[in-house]
């Protein structure tokens, strides 16, 4: 009996040992069969933003076509995480428009992002954003995986994390998968990187529904992230108020009208519209002009492009002159969003030629501080020139005839090529010569004391002072104009505002003024200047009276000075030698400390020139300009 029991025990032990050896062998075979998965770099869509992925570093493959302006990019070199990943890659030059693999590294948020045009992509400006990223084409190292516990992980293909996110539905950092329940030994071995992703199934194309959201966002609220979209404040280096006058006449046809609208949309995208940068409105003209939307209607490029798409053609003639007058009188107003401190720019688009005259309307626009650009498409042929009402109409209309303000397009299908040249010129505010400044927007009347107390020599010194002041201004028939009155007991108009239109002519005219001699009736001289000189001043000009005297007036100056101030004439009083300080302060516009000056002798008059110019410009810059 004992032998049987021993035999049975031996058989059980033998069987147990066989099973144990078999199990260990099977486990080894299974371990051998586990292979490191082959990683596939996921392809993302062009509209995927870096902020939607929490990995600090990741690799993706961009498709072709991400140069499209629909995919917004914010910044230059360092991009806000709200940017399109692939759009930023094209902008930075890492990829071209054919797509490819890129490595993305997250960096700290910036206090500001400056837009720029690069590699066919216009990036936008942004005041600040919480996170940034940079893009490079060095993706080789990102495929390396740790081979032993404790090895620092390299940038991981996005696939791995996407799988983990899909399974857990929460924000996760890369970590080792949990040990298998069926093996105690497997917990001692590092799991192959990406195993969990393999079990869940790999997806070739990343879809927004399965991504890890940026830190601070909750997946359930993903649909509401639209409200968090940053709105660009605009490019501050291009702060202009811009009106497009588009051709809606019947002759343009529907197809060319659509091309014109696409051109407007491209310009709106390139400009980076915003309250701190350029603002844009559109006026369509035919028989009569109509405002499609004004400067304050749309405050970003996206909304502006949507509005442009909805514009419908009105038809009619091509009355450009009437449209320019409308823009001058109606469009650039405070109620329409005109900011005053920003240059006013009007871009006129003309198919062929206008059906009315533009010269006088354009002159008034220039005098009002509007920089007029003309874009002419398919101009008149030799046989058609007989029908043009006003030959050389573009040169009669633009701000300056130096070629900067004119763009001639041979055919409508080439119009898109003028987007960047136009944007560059419109944003070059230093060259917008028709913008109102303190030196180019006034009618200045000099009221010169020719009394006997002045004397011949000192009178020539006074004339030199008048010339030195005049030299500081930009003089032309549409810029600053100069006039002069000499007075004693009587008054004489030396020359009016409309006599001389160039600086050399004005300076020569000042030199020719002859000394009169006599008494000193300053009050009567002010009244005379208001009637004979300033009454002919243009309504869109600032009126400056600069009175130079060396003594107390024989008549009352209070009422004439009040009349001048009431009529909007800004009066500067320059007293020399025996001039009465109290009279100077009465004559001068309030505050007198900024408009009344005194020098003790004629030879020191030149010292007052810089201060007078400074005060004229300081006052101008403190007021709305347009």
TrEMBL record:
Residues 170-201 are annotated as: Disordered. This is Vitrin. The keyword Disulfide bond applies. Binds dermatan sulfate and chondroitin sulfate. Residues 241-426, 443-616 form the VWFA domain. Residues 170-200 have a biased composition (Polar residues). It is found in: Secreted, Extracellular space, Extracellular matrix. Residues 40-133 form the LCCL domain. The keyword Coiled coil does not apply. SMART domains: LCCL, VWA. One of its GO terms (cellular component) is interstitial matrix. Promotes matrix assembly and cell adhesiveness. Plays a role in spinal cord formation by regulating the proliferation and differentiation of neural stem cells. Keywords: Disulfide bond, Extracellular matrix, Glycoprotein, Neurogenesis, Repeat, Secreted, Signal. GO terms for biological process: extracellular matrix organization; nervous system development; positive regulation of cell-substrate adhesion. PANTHER family: COLLAGEN ALPHA, VITRIN. It comes from the Eukaryota. Residues 1-26 form the signal peptide. InterPro entries: ECM_Assembly_Org, LCCL, LCCL_sf, VWF_A, vWFA_dom_sf.
